[in-house]
Design brief:
With 129 residues, this protein is of the alpha+beta class. It contains six helices and three strands. A three-stranded mixed sheet has the order 1-2-3. The termini are far apart.
């Protein structure tokens, strides 16, 4: 069995058993939000909601759970766990709490994010060059 198949099965089980949250009506704590940049929140489709001790609570969707999990393991310096929400509610909350030029609830697709990331890289190269 491939590692990808195991990760996919784990994500399915995790999403099925995880609690749900409406990130539009829940106001994320500022100390939790400070741990993730706007770019990271949109790229990995995860919204920091709370800190429980040293553990970061993030909202994501079943579709993006694997991506968000890899981000939390590889980038964040603390344990984390996830609560599930819908893609529309996550995009709306990201728009409110992590404004990022070119991204909003109406166009929060993978293609839009890829175009935005490409544009940001080009802008950085232009500034450096």
């Amino acid at each position: 069995i491939s590692a990808e198949a195991i990760e996919e099965a784990w994500a399915y089980q995790y999403a099925y058993n995880a609690p749900t949250i409406d990130p539009v009506t829940f106001i994320p704590r500022s100390d939790a939000k400070a741990l993730v940049s706007s770019r990271q929140a949109w790229q990995f489709r995860c919204l920091p909601m709370n800190l429980e001790g040293d553990t970061l609570v993030l909202a994501t969707t079943p579709r993006y759970l694997q991506r968000a999990l890899k981000f939390s393991i590889r980038v964040l310096d603390r344990p984390s766990y996830f609560m599930m929400t819908t893609e529309a509610r996550l995009a709306a909350a990201l728009s409110d709490h992590y404004p990022l030029g070119g991204m909003n609830a109406a166009n929060a697709t993978n293609d839009t994010m890829k175009r935005l990331m490409y544009k940001m890289r080009l802008d950085r190269l232009r500034e450096a060059g």
